[in-house]
TrEMBL record:
Protein name: O-antigen ligase-related domain-containing protein
Organism: Nocardioides marinquilinus
Keyword Membrane: yes
Domain of life: Bacteria
Keywords, alphabetical: Membrane, Transmembrane, Transmembrane helix
UniProt lineage: Bacteria, Bacillati, Actinomycetota, Actinomycetes, Propionibacteriales
Length: 460
């Protein structure tokens, strides 16, 4: 356990950087969002940094700092008051879900309710920031570039962990059965994250968001390098052995292929074969029905609990939020206990139904459906890179919906952060306008209006 003395060098460095970073955020809060997106995939490294545990709340602090900066930023960094933009339907549904979650948290009370609300709704502040200070075309391009680079780096680290082995990783400070996990005899790579689930789902998100953008501007060196690195990303994701990541990636790729990128359909069979190419011991675990059977029995018990409490058991009473609440000193009688342990639904829909009842589940589904409609409409109203970006966001939403069948997607960091950040990016793309030229194109290039239905370059 790191001591306070070990944390002082890191705290001193943060304080030293606070002034210049504060000035950058005050002049343009969007820079804070880009910094958050760049650092989030590497949050797990704090597990092995001396005193790193004391900095675990850096992301919440950064979000609040950037939000505060939106109120004092210069006018050129803020959304014009007369731009006529209106809140999309998903935002209204998200506000209703937040209100229901807040009421449930108050009823539950204590650490459980407070932590449950934090886990479930804190990163809803990101769309608020994007609404107040939208990312411009260059900043949206930088965001995609950041995720491309982070995806490649984390994939390389994940593959390197297979070479290093669990013993050396344990010596570095990672713990068994928490961070270091196995599927059969295979180490499940976790890269720079705290668990394999975060790693696999993050690489899934990067592939779905960045691939259409790279295809739309395939002559750009950055995008060519990313397309060439996709096999590396796929192999890295496979070493995490996360069912939800493969399921989500297939669902997202099918959408992109059916929507506009016909050539991507050729990637679906290899993706479906990824589990088959794993070692036999891993494949047996991957395809095992016992895990699904355990989840199914838990879900059946959940439906009985819903019948007893149609308004839900209360926010934060299950899953990772409940586990953290127990660590912070919550009483076990405040937590839903199934089989003598804190209940882990491993399904975002079941968790929402259990905690917030049928109304909460309906609002969650409404948020997802309305956000997907908004992404598709935004893509149809744009051309070029902005259209590709909106298509990537739509694919990520579909993947999140598919992955939520086998994971509590919205309480896995940093997937919860990126889910709401990408919805914020949609707010930066006015669905009534056509897109700007690619940042890599010379000034004036591509500014002539073209049909929104124009096709991208073919995918081999």
């Amino acid at each position: 356990m790191p001591t306070l003395a070990a944390a002082w060098p890191i705290v001193g460095l943060v304080l030293l950087l606070a002034v210049p970073l504060g000035w950058l955020f005050l002049s343009r809060p969007q820079r804070g969002l880009l910094l958050l997106a760049a650092l989030a995939p590497f949050d797990g490294l704090l597990l092995i940094v001396p005193g790193g545990a004391s900095l675990g709340s850096w992301k919440e602090g950064l979000v609040l700092l950037v939000l505060a900066a939106t109120f004092v930023a210069p006018p050129e960094a803020r959304r014009p008051a007369d731009d006529g933009a209106r809140l999309p339907g998903w935002a209204i549904a998200a506000l209703a879900l937040t209100a229901l979650g807040a009421a449930s948290a108050v009823v539950v009370g204590g650490i459980v309710g407070l932590w449950g609300f934090k886990v479930g709704f804190f990163y809803l502040l990101l769309p608020v920031i994007c609404w107040r200070c939208p990312l411009d075309a260059k900043e949206r391009d930088r965001l995609v570039g950041i995720l491309m680079a982070a995806g490649v780096v984390t994939a390389v680290v994940g593959l390197a962990q297979q070479v290093v082995g669990p013993e050396r990783l344990n010596e570095l400070g990672y713990t068994y059965n928490d961070v270091i996990r196995f599927s059969g005899s295979l180490l499940r790579s976790f890269s720079t994250f705290t668990q394999p689930f975060s790693f696999g789902l993050f690489v899934m998100l990067v592939l779905l968001l960045a691939t259409p953008v790279a295809i739309a501007d395939h002559r750009r060196l950055r995008n060519r390098l990313f397309l060439l690195s996709t096999p590396l990303l796929l192999i890295g994701m496979a070493t995490s052995v996360v069912r939800g990541a493969i399921l989500g990636l297939v669902a997202g790729m099918v959408f992109l292929a059916l929507w506009r990128y016909r050539g991507l359909v050729h990637l679906v069979p290899p993706l479906l074969l990824v589990p088959v190419l794993l070692p036999a011991s891993v494949l047996a675990t991957f395809l095992s029905s016992s895990s699904l059977g355990e989840r199914g029995s838990g879900w059946q018990e959940t439906f009985g609990l819903v019948a007893e409490a149609p308004w839900g058991q209360g926010l934060g009473t299950s899953g990772a939020a409940a586990e953290k609440a127990l660590e912070l000193g919550a009483e076990r009688n405040d937590i839903l206990i199934v089989g003598g342990a804190n209940y882990q639904p491993d399904n975002q829909y079941v968790k929402t139904l259990l905690e917030l009842g049928p109304i909460g589940l309906w609002l969650l589904l409404l948020v997802g459906a309305a956000a997907l409609v908004a992404a598709v409409r935004t893509a149809s109203a744009h051309v070029g890179v902005d259209r590709a970006l909106a298509e990537g966001v739509a694919a990520c939403l579909i993947a999140a919906g598919a992955g939520s069948l086998v994971a509590t997607y919205l309480e896995i960091f940093p997937l919860d952060l990126y889910f709401w950040l990408l919805l914020g990016v949609l707010l930066c793309l006015d669905p009534r306008s056509t897109s700007t030229p690619s940042p890599s194109a010379p000034e004036g290039a591509g500014s002539r209006p073209t049909s929104a239905s124009s096709s991208p370059p073919s995918v081999p």
